[in-house]
Amino acid sequence: MTMERKLTPVLGLLITLSLQAQEPLKRLTLSDAVLKAHSDLAPQHLDRLDWVTGSGSYSYLKGDSLMRNGVGKMADRPVIDLEGLRGSLPPGAAEMERFPAITWQDPDHFTFSHNDRVYSIDLTSRTLQEQCQLLPHAENQDAGPNGRIAYTVDNDLYISIPGTSGTIKVTNDGGDGIVNGKSVHRQEYGIEKGTFWSPQGNLLAFYRMDETMVTPYMLEEIESKPSTFKKIRYPMAGQNSHEVKVGVFDLRTKEILFLNTGEPKDQYLTNLAWSTDERYLFVTHLDRATTKARLVQYDVTSGNPIAELISDTSSKYVEPLHPPLFVNGSRTSYIWWSQRDGWMHLYLYDLKKGLVRQLTSGNWVVKEILGQDPKGSYLVVAGTADDPGPMTGRGSLETFLYRVDLRSGAVVQLTRDPGTHHGELNKDATQVIDRWSSTSVPGRTEIIDVRSGQVLKTLVDAPDPLAGYRVGSIELLSITGEFGDPLNARLIKPSGFQSRARYPVIVYVYNGPHVQLVSDSWLGGAPLWMLEAAERGYLVFTVDGHGSDDRGLAFEQAVYRHLGAVEMKDQLHGVDYLRGLPYVDRERMAVHGWSFGGFMATSLMLKAPGVFKVAVAGGPVMDWSMYEVMYTERYMDKPEENPDGYAQARLTDKCGQLQGDLLVIHGLDDETVLPEHSYRFLQDCVKEGRQVDFFVYPGHPHNVRGKDRVHLMTKVLDHIDRALGMADGAR
Questions:
Q1: Which part of the chain is CATH 2.20.25?
Q2: For residue 399, how many other CB atoms are within 10 A of its CB?
Q3: Are 299 and 275 in contact (CB under 8 A)?
Q4: Which of 282, 365, 439, 493 gets the highest tally of CB atoms within 10 A of its CB?
């Protein structure tokens, strides 16, 4: 398959991806589009590609064999295969069905977990050593220095020590409403885990969450007969939230000390980080109103605060997502993330001197710190491209890798090829593995020199995985949205597209915070099912409106206190753009979205009646007062503080405005958007005499995954087909 990428001005940016192939072309089935999207039909890549600690080489998995190579021209060499790893297991060990995830200790040793045991293998002698044994049902494993592993069983915290058969039980009070060692605040504010090892592994910080004051919520489980109910604690906007403490467990004394974090008890304690000498723990405090984030330094011997180091404030909201990162070779210098200038940038601070300098600046967003060199001279980061203007949006389409000098603040772009780059830095920060794609490059994996940006070796140059399939074209567009701001959009056309024909449209929507659907990556960021949908005879359209990711703080905060209002106007600007195209059938438009996108799809049907003939809303928020505290109050404040905003966004009392065909889908086990949202919406539909379709997926949480996703997408697209007269034989 040959692919062409051309830039043409269409209200800003038009990237056309032409997918051409020699005959015969196969039809892309919906089943393949869903089940093979990350395997056979994904661009070729090296599985489990990783740097080998203490060497200049990398490893990856090829079939059942672990392979290793370096930047030179030597051939890949096998390290060990699955059969060899099985043979090293002790007698009586459970069968190892697939090659496990590994962690390199040095060039000759790696560790892995198998059932309830952690092993280290010596690759020279092919001997296996049991590091430690975990209790049954262990979860949330967190490996620390010296091979120590923290983990949870139920709601208590444990530690296993290498070379001992015993297990330390850190907490004893876990139970209904008391949770130790797990993520808190519903994984908002960058919280992804509940344990934090000190640099030498002598201390373990952990979260303790008391949610006994949060109203219980029951979810029905039908695996048994009769069905049972699972109790969860779900803090809804404006209601009681849980209370969190930070404990510090000393492995030498076996004692716990809790930090004196003060009032109010429902504050958010986020982004924990240790000092290099293990004397201090740093915690970012965020008030429940989310208007002030404070970085506080704690003495772990007394639990008392030592100093408030940084305070970031906003009249709308602040959202701390990253802990401070201490600079290698220094006990006092650290990196701080902040959006104080309107974009997510990095700042160099000192514990004694305060702010030293702003490291990055401009109309772009730092997305990730990949690491730093051993001497603390520079960082390697991933970030968007610098926008030519503060609101063009073009820069957000791409992600590049950069080197940031900590002394001068100079920023050097390491990757030049347009597209979306993801990096993995080696330990000495001299080379980075760059995995990237674009609308014209299915996937490429390269090793780049961090000093020069030179490509040292190409590991993979993936061919087009859709070669031989009949698929259409993908265009990245810029359209004008609310306030006159350019919005990034994507339009998928069917193969054999004819400009004189008139095509129905499926608008796929999310348009919520922290999500970007359109990018300069393979297929423009589109999932494969959209290409299958286009082959049914549709145009498939997506626009990233105000509130979506990587466009700066002003673009995101345009939705503050009125979720759905500006976003809906942006989506309707997208509809206006479509209606201006001569090949669009204005009378046959559908909208589909999930989660925030389900809220948007339903909002468009109720508040812009007649625009869309049919909508499919999955896992939709129907009333923001029933959604979780942390997310909702950040964008909407409390219901009593913003009654008009909540009333405007509420959909459970607007069913009388429904025109057209609406299908609502919900997972029965959804702990993110509770099924009650859909139930209350249906209740109002009955009250107003409005007919809607409703489907429940038993056993599925907020998203439907695995083989059942084929059923889901079949239901979605077949429903749209019927509503728009596109059923088999009528296309």
A1: 45-133
A2: 25
A3: no
A4: 439
Q: Amino acid identity of 100?
A: P
**Nearest residue to 679 via CA among 701, 652, 650:** 652
Q: How many CA atoms lie within 13 A of 676 on its CB side?
A: 13
Q: How far apart are CA 634 and CA 319, in angstroms?
A: 8
- pLDDT tens sequence across 141-194: 999 998 899 999 999 999 999 987 779 999 999 999 999 999 999 999 999 999
* Assigned architecture for domain 325-463: 6 Propeller (2.120)
Q: At what angle do helices 565-579 and 596-607 cross, to 10 degrees?
A: 70
End-to-end Cα separation, the chain, in angstroms:
27
- What's the CATH fold of domain 45-133? N-terminal domain of TfIIb (2.20.25)
Q: Which of 88, 48, 96, 39 is nearest to 68 (CA)?
A: 48
Tell how strand 431-437 and strand 444-449 pair up: antiparallel
**Domain 2-42+465-723: homologous superfamily in CATH:** Alpha/Beta hydrolase fold, catalytic domain (3.40.50.1820)
Give the CA angle between residues 45, 47, 50 to the nearest 5°.
105
> 292 with 239: CB under 8 angstroms?
no
Structure tokens belonging to residue 675: 């099924």
Residue 331 has phi, psi (to 5 degrees) of -95, -10
Would you tell me how many other CB atoms lie within 10 Å of the CB of residue 114?
17
pTM higher than 0.85 = yes
The DSSP output letter for 28 is -
- Active site positions, annotated: 595, 670, 702
